[in-house]
Amino acid sequence: MTVAAGGCKSEGPASDTKPAAAAEAKAEAPEAPEASPSEAAPSEEEGPKVQLAFSRVGPEQQAALAERTGDAKLAEAALLLAVRYEVPEGWHIYWQNPGETGLRTQIKAQVADGSGEAGETLYPAPDALVGPGGQVSYGWHEDAVLFVPVFGETPSVDIDSRWLVCRESCIREKKKASLSLPELAQAEAADPLLADMLSRVPEPAAERVTGTWRAEAGKDSALVLQAEAGAVEAFFPFASDAALFVASEAEAGDGLAVRYRFQGARETFPEGQGVVRWKDGETTRWLTLALPWPEA
């Protein structure tokens, strides 16, 4: 799904916002730098654009996710925390790789008493967001849910989340919360947003998608993706300074050609290329692509 990232006029005072195309931090930065109040904070009268809500994923849904993704560690987690970002209509937030503009939505989770640990954030696959100038970013329009596995018998978890919310302009926001896990409500299994976000957590591509490297002009190389069945519809790259994603385009036979420019040592390349959206009939899956990189 590709959606327009542009929209209406800036919200709030001019000092609170910045143009979406001018969000400075690179996609691969480990975390967004602290924003000054004059640059990013919404006015007191307006309040934050995005509201956060917390719940725990039901044990059956957690087990189903662990089985589908082949994540044995997730199956052992005491619970799977769902962090819901309630985004106003017409606005959007960003994926782990925001793309050409934006900042990654981040969650830092810390077990308060040291009796357990919090795992890495699980990012559901995004949509492509196309700006007025043609810049392609990755994220979600309106509401989204990220997931954090929690291990051990800890009674509480401290959450520190930061994000950039954009329409025609952008606002940096953050939220800290201390959650009492025994009191945390279980998410409704029938919640359509929760079900959609869980289904978008990528699983290994395995044999469903294969790739062949093809040399291109200059320093470019193309990874030609073909599906064993169905079609490869879209590609969302992991951020990398060394294996720089250039573009993706349709390939004959329902395939996709993903072009890269290599500008670093092979040992600095990411473990995988990104996430593909694969469709076979009425079935849509988001698959993690982790193919060998070409030899230098």
TrEMBL record:
Protein name in UniProt: Thio:disulfide interchange protein, putative
Lineage per the UniProt record: Bacteria, Pseudomonadati, Myxococcota, Polyangia, Nannocystales
Biased composition (Low complexity): 18-41
Residue numbers spanned by region Disordered: 1-50
Domain Thiol:disulfide interchange protein DsbD N-terminal: 74-178
